[in-house]
Structure formats: structure tokens, C-alpha cells
């Protein structure tokens, strides 16, 4: 197969995948992109200083001046949510990326390495997976001292075994495929075999899980912040915002309502995106009505 | 079968040991002086020194680990710096209330998820299926703590359908027998009081269950779809079995086993989620105990909660595995498969 034919083939496959994405799916990906932009540039986009206390403007309802109202300290809720997006979402993405990297490493080692190492890694992941992630990271974060950084480290430490297990399954599935045997026969080195032939195909399936997990990690991080073990005042992390507002819910419902809706929408979008990716990987699911 | 039970039982101490070791590492992670932390903020220098002696911090790491294991085995999880009682006593006090909440949430989970799973599988691809699945998905992505606050505000404070917080009408004394308020109310023979306590548990249990309903319904749905398309269901229909009977008697009975496994695992996860629910609804339990411990910087109490939940999760998984085998004869053949 010549190079040009190979690239042609890839292109048509891409086009085929593209047509599988409904308009609805495309909208989801656009919205996610939009949220990520907000998370990165939130600091610049915030119309007011998110930390400036102004008791004169305490608990103003949503208006054209303050789109999402103000909190008890007179801080603009929109600005706080924008700034909070960077702490909530970027820390979530960090957890996922760290966990995925560690998971891919241990999963590959587990699948291709010696049997005793496989046993150790898998039994370790048994214990970690049986544990509610919220509780395990609660313990780690409590030990490290309450802060968003602790919550992120704690979650990163507890989240990888799931990925290790997935990667192990995928790698085991792929290593016995004919094209891997063919590459081995052709004399491809073991390292190249792993990185060029096995992992890229194994990781295609991992993307789905990673995307869905963004919503799960986001919920745990905001939960940890809500109970006071994650982000600390005056941080505008979304879960901390809900916690800030909870005592004033009768006087200003928006201080609780809006951050919660924002968390929910973000989590929902990543969940739907994961489903869309799943169908893209396995179009038979669409026919089964899985989507 | 008995061999399998013994094998699984033999795994339990191993897993518990792993959990305890994990918790030991958590304690080692505490920055600064753990003796200072364990003794509490207001401790005098002598108290800190006494605590250092008690924790054996002057010994080597291996010695510390061994003494920690033997202490944990004897149920000594340290003393709470907030309640000044042994943590294990505190936990024994609050755990039944959490179990009560988890069981109530499990009941709601099953009552909602099984019909949802069956209906969406039978009507797969229809607008009803899509609508129901979107609603359950939203349920799975709502932050639990936020849903609690919103329902407390709307259904409790505004519409006054449910009590806002607590677990029994104020001023009422219920003699503690099991530690579960509803059961204790029933034991006391006061039926009105029983329904009142039940009224208190509905909202927190619903909030706790919602995130799990989506997972349960989804598992059941995909299992049901597979079974509904299998030949034996078609044969049953061809032989004149009614559609409802084919779905309930033939398909559901075969599709529900993976759902049972999920439900069993969810008990441990739900117990973990009580951390987000109990304190909002002012309920006693391991979750609100952990939340208070976090706020009081009672780190050893927080870590003990991790240990206890780990033990509960391990026992639950054992029960699920064993009962799964008892229910499904097919599994007994393939013992030892990886």
C-alpha cells in the first residue's frame, strides 16, 4: 500500500465517521469547546473582580448589570463562575490526564509484563475500584490538608486503576490480532510494536471513558469542595460556590441554583460527548438504539 | 460451591489488610507533626509528647506499621479530638442511621430503575425511550449536594411537602434499640411515629439514590435488549406467551443478574455518598460524622471513616459474589475463570 493510498483511506474513514455525528452531537462538541475556552480565559472575561467584597451590593438578584446576581459579599456571580471554571475544569482535566497516563502505563505493563506484576497491579486495582472514589480521596485530601491541590492529588491517586484495567483489557485483545503477529514476523522491535501498533488502537476506546469520566471527576471535585476539603474560601470553585450560597438560599436562591446548574450542564455535556464518541467508534451501537 | 465461599472468605483478610495499609500511608502523608495533629490544636506540649509516645512515632517505620495493624485489629482507631471518645465508639453510634438511609435509597433505586430499564429496553429507539434516558442521564450528572439543597428549599421550605431536616419530629424521644430511627419507632409500637420518621427519610434517600438510578437502569436496559432479541424469547412469543409475560417472566429474569451485581456494589458507593447528603438534611450518620470531622480538622476520625467504609465495601462485595453464585447456577460451573 503506497503512502498516498493509505492517507486516502484514512480520509474516507474520517468522512464516514463525520457523517455519523448528528447535528446534535456536533452541537455538544461545540459547546464543550466553548466551555473550555471560558475555563482558560475566564480570568480575562470576568466583567467584575470576582474577589472584591462590596457589601453594598449584597445578594442582588440577576439583572442586566449582574447577569447571575451577586453573592452575600456583593461579589458578581458571573465573574465568580467564570473564574471558578478554571479551577473546577482545569483541575478536573489535570486529574483525568494524570490518571490516564499512569493507567496506560500500568495497564500496558500489566498486559505485556510478567505474570506476577500483572497479579499485583490487578489486585491493587481491585481494592481501589471497590472503594468509593469520593471516600478514598476524602481520606487522602484530609491527610494532605484541605485545599484544591490536595483534592486534585487525592483524586489523581485514586482514579488511575480504572484506566489500568481498561487498557489491560484492550491491549490483551489487540496483541493477538493478526496485524500484530504480522508486524512481529516482519521484525518490528518490541518497543515500536507497543507504541506504534498496539497502544494507538487500544487507546481509541479509552477516549470514550476519559470523556465520560470528566463529568464524574468534576462531580467529585465539586463535592469535595462542597464539604470543605477541596477548594478553600475565597476560591470560586463551583462546588465551593454552592457551599458559600447554602446559608443564603432563602434570601438569594441564585447563589446556589446557578453554580449547580453550571456543574450539571457541564457534566451532562461531557457525558453526551462520551456517548457520541462511543457510537463513532462502534457504529453498530447506533443501530441497536444504544444511543 | 462451599469451596468457592471459602476461597472468597480467604480473600477478605487480604483485602482488609490492603485497606488498612492504604490508610496507614494516608496517616503517613499528614504533613508536619502527626502527634500535634492527633493531639489537637489546643493540646499542651506535654499532651503532644504523650501523644507521640502513644502513636509510637519515635519508633522505626516498620514498628509503627506493626503496632498500627495490631491496634486496628483490636478496634482501636484512635480518639476523636472533637468528641473525646474512641472513634470506633462514635462510628458504631452513627453507622445504623447511615445503613437505614442507604437501604431506603436502595429501595427507591430499585423501584425506579427496574421499570425504567424494562420500559426503555422494550421501547428502544422510541421517543419515550429517548426522553426517559435523557431524564435519567440528567439525574446522573446533577451534583448530589446541590440536588439536596434545591429539593430541601423547594419541596421542604417552599411547598412544605417534606420536613426540611432531621430524622424525627422535634421533641419526640425514641428509645434507641437498633439505632435506625424508623425501625426504633416501629419497635416502640407507635405506628404514627413510624410513618413520621419514614416521611423524614424520603427526601434524603431520594437525593442519595438519583445518581445510582441512571447506572442501574442503563445496565438493565442493555441486558434486556440482548435478552429480548434472543431466540428463546422469540420462541416463547411464538408459543403464544403474552408480551408482558415474555418480558417479565422470560426476559427480565435472565437480564436482571448483572443488575444485582451492580446493586450490591452500589451499597458501598452509596455509603460513601452519605458524606454529601447527611449533613445537608441534618441526619446522623457516618457521612455527617466525616463532614464534621473535616471541619474540626479531626483527621484521624476522617481516616477512620475511610477504613470503616472499606470494611463495609469488602463485606458487601463478598456477599454479592456469593449470593450471585447462589442465584445463578450457570456461574457455578466456571469456577476459577480469570
Radius of gyration of chain B: 24 Å
Spatial separation of the terminal alpha carbons of chain A: 35 Å
* Beta-strand fraction estimate of chain A: under 5%
Secondary-structure element order of chain A, as H and E?
HHHHHHHHHHH
Largest beta sheet of chain A, briefly?
A: none
Write the layout of secondary structure elements.
The complex is a heterodimer of chains A (291) and B (338).
Chain A: H1 3-20, H2 23-45, H3 77-112, H4 115-130, H5 133-144, H6 148-175, H7 178-185, H8 190-226, H9 238-245, H10 254-281, H11 284-288
Helix pairs in contact in A: 2-3, 2-10, 3-4, 3-6, 3-8, 4-6, 5-6, 6-8, 7-8, 8-9, 8-10, 9-10
Chain B: H1 2-29, H2 34-39, H3 45-55, H4 61-73, H5 87-122, H6 127-141, H7 144-158, H8 181-187, H9 191-228, H10 231-238, H11 243-277, H12 286-295, H13 299-327, H14 330-333
Describe the structure.
The complex is a heterodimer of chains A (291) and B (338). Chain A has 291 residues and is an all-alpha fold. Chain A has a single domain, classed as MetI-like (MetI-like fold, Orthogonal Bundle). Chain A is 75% helix and 0% strand. Chain A is elongated. Chain B is mostly helical and 338 residues long. In chain B, helix 11 runs parallel beside helix 12 and helix 12 packs antiparallel against helix 13. The longest helix of chain B has 38 residues. The two termini of chain B are 17 Å apart. Chains A and B meet through helix 4, helix 5, helix 8, helix 9 and helix 10 of A and helix 1, helix 6, helix 7, helix 11 and helix 12 of B.
Keywords:
heterodimer, A: 291 residues, mainly alpha, MetI-like fold, 11 helices, elongated, disordered N terminus, B: 338 residues, 14 helices, 75% helix, globular
Task: Tell me briefly what this model is.
Chain A is mainly alpha-helical.
